[in-house]
Amino acid sequence: MIQINALDAHEKGHQLKQDLQLLIDNKTKPIGALGTLEKIALQIGQIQQTITPSLKKPVVLVFAGDHGIVESGVSPYPQTVTAQMVHNFLLGGAAINVFAKQHRMLMRVIDSGVNYDFEQTPNLVHAKVAFGTKNFLHEPAMTVIQCEHAMTLGEAFVTKEVEQGSNVFAFGEMGIGNTSSASCLMSVLCGLPIAHCVGRGTGLNDAGLIKKTKILRKALEKHAVDNTDPIQVLATFGGFEIAMMAGAMLSAAKHQSILLIDGFIATAALLVAAKLQPNIVQYCIFSHSSGEAGHQAMLEHLKAEPLLNLGLRLGEGTGAVLAYPLVQSAVHFLNEMASFSTAGVSSAE
Hints:
Layout: H1 11-25, H2 36-48, E1 59-65, H3 80-91, H4 95-102, E2 106-113, E3 124-126, H5 144-163, E4 168-174, H6 178-190, H7 206-222, H8 230-237, H9 240-254, E5 258-261, H10 264-276, E6 284-286, H11 295-301, H12 318-336, H13 340-343
Parallel strand pairs: 1-2, 1-4, 2-3, 4-5, 5-6
């Protein structure tokens, strides 16, 4: 199992935190005047173990997978949309393509388990565990072996990107039905009633939301999962893209990288990762509060403070990429802003 160190677990880490805070406080501004940017700068310095952090080759990993639960009517969209959207990613036509290009982030599209046989193409990472998960209304979504395999693949993808120089990772996904998986993961791992976790997903009406909630409640009642065993919970209710993302997140933190966490689905993957390695949250910057019902409660469970609240509920990693300029600003002010002494400005008495 990957081990992730706490950022201030030893004397050296504690001293670094003090040095960073002193550096931040002595910039030409009142103490705390840059608000959350100061917290981000402190966090990134601790992650990279330096008072001069840098952002290198930021990459957004978009994991795609299909979900058997869709056949029970939890989504207004057919399962075929997952593959269609992957093609859209590859053609550069999705929102995440536009935002990643705008902010000069690399983008990787990963077939974790789409129910479609894609042609070999260099623009798609072929990592299909299976052609979609099983319908967890009737049986576990995947086997534990498949779940662990997906996580291992996710770990390997990030290791490869780190070896090529990346130290910032945004996490996105695509998968019709994956809000159902995320809702069940949240319900079990956070100990909340499913009604507090389920939302409209891709746009269910009131009747559709009631139906979805009933189906997911029935699924939760069927499976007697051990909520202290996150792998079993993930295998029972998760998706291949969620499992692969959780493994990728664990690997990114292990390599002292910055994790930009997107919305509801990505945070569900993080819930699993955090149950395995609680220290991972210290490496995460939460990009936004999703418009999907339940996400705020999920963030509160993780004691997370998101940077943005734009009513986003698209997924794909869009919120994570949109928040990246704030991360850049935090690093730039830490490295480039003058101190009172160097600028010859009088500090507060």
